[in-house]
Structures are given as structure tokens and as C-alpha cells.
Write a structure and sequence with these properties.
heterotrimer, A mainly alpha (216), B mainly alpha (243), C alpha/beta (189), B: mainly alpha, 77% helix, C: alpha/beta, five-stranded parallel beta sheet, three-stranded antiparallel beta sheet
């Protein structure tokens, strides 16, 4: 399992544009935002969290597009399924590595920006956990959509994934609303963590089934 | 004996024979009921205290939105049946229901918009119920395009079943969304536990319209499923006798 | 080692083959023959467990390791030869790996990007994984396409040695490979 982890890490690490690109896109969005809106206004503080997780949503969407495509086309997935019964471990590790190289940096950047924008340390405790968890959830869901539309283009994948994001977006929206009003969000964060744990277990299993069906 | 029952119900041939026999009855029955409902509701039911006559679109809107969720439930059951027991008929049903589900959801959205204009002055609002129904519509579109993009039907069946089941998480959210948010869309007037908050003179035509409309949609589903079956089992010998 | 009983396979109602049965034992090679589109690749994929037959059974003994080379090379074009071998668990510095690369005329190209190699060179690189594999069963789908005679002889020699070590081979090839004890399965469609 650890060998697989090292291999997948090696693969993604070498593909600089796959992970550095999205991080830069996210950076671009979060930098342009305060540049185009008046810095001192109160409105900015209220809207900032929304911009943050919309930006992370879009960044993850763009970056997860090719998560299985290359390995499918060059036969790596096929080769793996010959040697192993289930693709579960590979999918799980791939998604984790995408989160490691894209999700975590984005969350750190976003937290840094939110602290600097709102000027309060409390936003650290709002932004960091919610972004860490939400990016991991998004990566899972977009991976699911992309596995269904493996060879059929990204438009289909986006169409499929969009409704699946819906529950998470509602939850995140509630978190943002509560954060803006200064209410307690820890219970919502725990809920999101629970969703994440469910997703971590089920989604790789579903994706493994889907990819095996593709390979047939 | 259970195995015999199972083989009977899982066979497309038995299904087609059964459905061909029942179709005329269902069709005419539903047509009658829905006509009664519409006549009663449109002409004889009293005008609403607050909304005037515009509420009458309810007789189209409520059955449509009820069906949009129920059809998804039927698809979800069919998806589970297909994935667990590999019954091909179940996959045909999913493929045939998806476009009709999209249709009724569309009717629900449009009739809801039309209802909204005179009543609340707006034809769209991003509130919970409306947004969730839009999401449901997009889900149906996703299912249709997913199946349509594959030439290998066996694979496409598996994919569409998986997607139906994964998307099923949205259904409780849609149903409950009206209770969680109190926004523009009015909360459910008819629940299982409480006495309905709607007047009987409007309630009865509503029930009739639900039954009638559902029946008509069932007829559409039957037609659509026959198309699917004949398409997929086209080269089997019994098909020629029943087309 | 392998028992195949009455398998049939169809795609979208088109039956490719039906009631196919054969056995494979240790030290035996099977050459799957048939015209284009007759289902040879599909048969290999069924034997590997990637696809499943519509009817019939494929029974492998216990946990038999299989290695497979099909039409896809399992190589990353944007990585170097050395990196690609690393992905397959092979170290370029290792003497065994070096000698195989030398035989295939690839040893000077260790740092080249695979995308810059020719078609035949990529195919040869894909074979390295097969040459160095320890699995009991080797399954090859058209291994000689695009390769020169020298490489073909190399492949034949390697496969013959493996047969001598009691390994089993199943392959499809339009180009004859002249392997001993090779049983021909004809008549897929």
C-alpha cells in the first residue's frame, strides 16, 4: 500500500502542470478579488468566505479533470486491475494524493487570505477546517463524475457532478452564513467531517466499480 | 415457486404481454379521472381567499412535482434491482423513465413559475424547493446524456444505475428542504400525519388530479419502456408478435 | 493451471464466439488464432478477468500471477525511460535491467522522454516489464507488431526459456513466433 502511495505521489509530482497550475489559479482568484473590490468595505468581509469556497470549488473542478484519464488511456488502470482484484486502493490513494498536493495548499492559501482580509484570528478556525474538509469532499465528488465520463469529455462529467455537489454546497452555505453572523459553526463542521468520512469509504469503492466496468 | 415468480417478472416478454393488456384500461381510466379533476378544479372549485383564480394551476403543478420525485424513487428501486439481481428489464425501465422524469420536472418548474407571477410577483427565486427541483431536473438530464453517450449498452446500464443511486441522496433533501427553510415556496399542505390545511372543496379535485395525472404518466412510461424493450431485445423471436 | 469451459462472449447482441473450451498446463504455450475482429483480444481479456464471459466458466488454479501486455504500452510519454521503469518497480542501475536494455538497444536512451522514442522503441520498452517479470503466466496480445526481426527472435528466445521454466504462455500474433508446444485454437468465428 505504501509503495502504491509512493508511486502515485511520484506520478503526480512529476506532472507539474497538474497540481501547480490549479494552485496558481486559486491564488489568482484570491488575489484579484481584493484588488477589484474596495479593500476597507465591510461587504468584502461578509462575502469573502463565499468567494473562498467558490474559488476552491472551481479550482478543484478544473484540477481533478484528468485524474483517471491518463492512466486509463495508457493502460495503467488495466494493468493494475490484472494484478489486483479491486481498484479501491489505487483510487483511494490517488484521491488522497490530489488532496495532498492541491487541496491542502489551497486550504492554507485560503486561510492565509481570510486571516489577512478579516484581520481576525478567529477566521483561522473557520477557514482552515472547512476548506480542508470541503476540498477533500469536492475532489471525491469530481473524481466520481470524471470516472463516469471517463472517455466522453468533461462537459458530461460536469453535468453529472453538479447535482451531487448540491448537499455539500448547502452545508457549506450554512457554515458561511453562520460564520458571517458570528454564530457557532463547530457542529456543522463535525457534520461535514462525518460526511467526509462516509465519502472516503464509499466513493473509491463506487469509482472502482465504475472503472472496472469501463475496462470491460 | 419464488424462482418461477422471479423469472416471470424479470422477463421482458411477460412484461410486454401484461402491459399490453392493461394499457387501454389505465389510459382511459386516467383520462377520465384527470378530466373530472380538471373540470371540477378549474370550473367548480371556489376561488382562493388570497390567490384568486391563479391557484388553479396547482392541479397541474402539484401532481407534476410529486411525480418528478416518485419517478426518481422508482428508478432508484430499479437501479438497485439491476445491480443486485442483474435483471435487464430493470435497466430498460430506468432508461425509459429518465426522459419522462425530465419532462414532468420541467412541467413542475414551468407551472411553478407561471403560478409565481400573479401570486408572488416573481417567476423565479433561489429558494430551497425550487432550487432542489432544478437540481432534480439537471440530474435527469445527466442520466439521459450519460446513457446516450455509450454505444455499449451493457456498460451504459451499469453506469446509469450507479448514477441513479448516488444521486438518490438528493431526494430526501428535496423533500425536506421545504421544512428546513421557510422561504418563498409554501410548506407542504398535505402530510401523512397532520390534517390537511387545504379546504376540502379544493382538496378532492387535487386528489383526483394526482391520480389522473399519475395514470397518464404511467401510460407514457409504459409506451417508453416498450420502445426500450423492442430496441434492445429486437432480434428475439417473440418481439415480432407483439410490436 | 487453467480450465476454460464452454465460454461464449457477445458485444451488444453480436456473438463473437461460443462454446469455447480448452485447458492450459504448466510449460505450455497457446497461440490464439483468428481473423481480425474475431474476438482474440476479448478472449485474452476474459482470461485475465478484466471482462467476463456471457456464458461458461474460466477457472484458474489458486492465486496464479499473470502478466499482460496488450495494445496499450503502460508507458507515460512525458516521463523518461528511467522514470517509466521506476513506475514498474525496475531500477535502471540494476544489472539485470541494464542487460535487457542493452539487448533491446535502449541502454543509451535511459534519460530520453518516452514520447520522443519511435513506435518500435516504445514497444520494446513495454516488453522490458515482461522480460523481467516473475509471474507464472504470460499473456501477450500481438507482441511483435512494429518490431524488427532481431527483437522478434529475442522475444521467441525469451518465451522459450520461460516455457522451460514451466511457465505458461497465451498469445495472439499474426506474425508467427515458432514456439515449441504451441497449441493453436482456431475458429473463433
Amino acid at each position: 500500500m505504501f509503495d502504491l502511495f509512493k508511486l502515485e505521489l511520484f506520478k503526480l509530482r512529476k506532472k507539474l502542470r497538474a497540481w501547480l497550475g490549479p494552485i496558481l489559479v486559486f491564488l489568482l482568484i484570491t488575489i484579484s478579488f481584493p484588488l477589484t473590490v474596495e479593500l476597507a468595505s465591510d461587504d468584502l468581509k461578509n462575502v469573502f468566505y463565499s468567494i473562498l469556497w467558490i474559488a476552491s470549488l472551481l479550482t478543484v473542478m478544473v484540477s481533478v479533470e484528468g485524474i483517471f484519464l491518463e492512466d486509463y488511456e495508457d493502460g495503467t488502470l488495466e494493468n493494475f486491475s490484472v494484478a489486483n482484484d479491486s481498484l479501491f486502493s489505487m483510487v483511494l490513494i490517488k484521491i488522497f494524493i490530489y488532496w495532498l498536493l492541491i487541496g491542502i495548499p489551497i486550504s492554507l492559501l485560503g486561510t492565509f487570505f481570510s486571516v489577512s482580509m478579516t484581520g481576525e484570528m478567529s477566521s483561522f478556525y473557520i477557514a482552515l477546517p472547512s476548506m480542508l474538509i470541503s476540498t477533500y469532499i469536492f475532489i471525491n465528488l469530481f473524481a466520481l463524475g470524471n470516472s463516469l465520463s471517463l472517455n466522453k469529455g468533461s462537459v458530461l462529467g460536469a453535468l453529472i457532478t453538479m447535482p451531487l455537489l448540491f448537499p455539500i454546497l448547502i452545508l457549506l452555505g450554512k457554515i458561511v452564513l453562520n460564520a458571517n453572523f458570528g454564530f457557532e459553526i463547530s457542529n456543522l463542521l463535525l457534520l461535514m467531517l462525518g460526511v467526509l468520512l462516509l465519502i472516503i469509504v464509499f466513493i473509491p469503492f463506487i469509482i472502482s466499480f465504475i472503472i472496472r466496468t469501463h475496462l470491460e | 415457486m419464488l424462482k418461477k415468480l422471479y423469472h416471470q417478472f424479470a422477463s421482458p416478454k411477460t412484461y410486454v404481454v401484461l402491459v399490453n393488456k392493461m394499457y387501454p384500461y389505465i389510459f382511459y381510466f386516467s383520462l377520465c379521472i384527470y378530466t373530472i379533476a380538471l373540470v371540477w378544479g378549474l370550473a367548480y372549485a371556489p376561488a382562493d381567499y388570497m390567490q384568486g383564480n391563479s391557484f388553479r394551476i396547482m392541479y397541474l403543478h402539484v401532481p407534476a412535482s410529486f411525480l418528478s420525485q416518485s419517478l426518481y424513487l422508482v428508478m432508484a428501486i430499479a437501479a438497485a434491482v439491476f445491480l443486485v439481481w442483474k435483471v435487464k428489464l430493470a435497466a430498460y425501465m430506468i432508461k425509459s423513465i429518465a426522459p419522462i422524469g425530465a419532462l414532468v420536472t420541467f412541467i413542475a418548474l414551468v407551472s411553478g413559475s407561471i403560478w409565481g407571477i400573479p401570486t408572488w410577483g416573481t417567476w423565479w427565486q433561489w429558494d430551497a424547493r425550487i432550487t432542489s427541483t432544478l437540481i432534480l431536473f439537471i440530474m435527469y438530464l445527466g442520466l439521459i446524456s450519460l446513457h446516450g453517450s455509450f454505444t455499449n449498452f451493457e456498460k451504459a446500464d451499469k453506469f446509469i444505475s450507479v448514477l441513479v443511486l448516488v444521486g438518490f441522496v438528493n431526494i430526501p433533501i428535496i423533500k425536506k428542504s421545504v421544512d428546513w427553510w421557510s422561504t418563498l415556496h409554501q410548506p407542504a399542505s398535505i402530510t401523512l400525519t397532520n390534517k390537511p390545511s387545504i379546504d376540502p372543496s379544493m382538496l378532492y379535485p387535487l386528489f383526483f388530479s394526482m391520480i389522473g395525472f399519475s395514470g397518464l404518466i404511467i401510460c407514457l412510461v409504459i409506451l417508453s419502456s416498450k420502445v426500450q424493450i423492442f430496441n434492445r431485445e429486437g432480434n428475439k423471436s417473440w418481439v415480432k408478435d407483439h410490436v | 493451471m487453467l480450465e476454460v469451459k464452454n465460454i461464449s462472449f457477445s458485444i451488444n447482441q453480436n456473438r463473437l464466439f461460443q462454446n469455447l473450451s480448452f485447458n492450459l498446463s504448466k510449460g505450455q504455450a497457446i497461440h490464439v488464432k483468428g481473423s481480425n475482429g474475431s474476438g482474440k483480444s476479448s478472449l485474452l481479456r476474459i482470461l485475465l478477468g478484466i471482462s467476463s464471459a456471457s456464458k461458461g466458466e474460466v477457472i484458474w488454479d489458486e492465486e496464479i500471477g499473470k502478466v499482460f501486455l496488450g495494445h496499450k504500452n503502460v508507458l507515460k510519454n512525458h516521463l523518461s525511460v528511467a522514470d517509466n521503469l521506476h513506475l514498474h518497480g525496475l531500477d535502471v542501475a540494476h544489472p539485470e535491467v541494464r542487460s535487457i536494455l542493452k539487448d533491446l538497444n535502449l541502454d543509451q536512451k535511459a534519460e530520453l522522454l518516452v514520447g520522443n522514442l519511435s513506435y518500435g522503441q516504445q514497444k520494446k520498452l513495454a516488453l522490458v516489464r515482461i522480460f523481467l517479470n516473475q509471474s507464472s503466466v504470460i499473456i501477450l496480445d500481438e507482441p511483435c507488431v512494429g518490431l524488427d526481426d532481431q527483437t522478434r527472435r529475442l522475444i521467441t528466445t525469451f518465451l522459450t526459456t520461460e516455457l522451460g521454466k514451466n511457465k505458461s504462455i497465451i498469445y495472439t500474433s499474426h506474425i508467427p513466433l515458432e514456439l515449441p508446444s504451441s497449441e493453436v485454437i482456431i475458429g473463433i468465428l
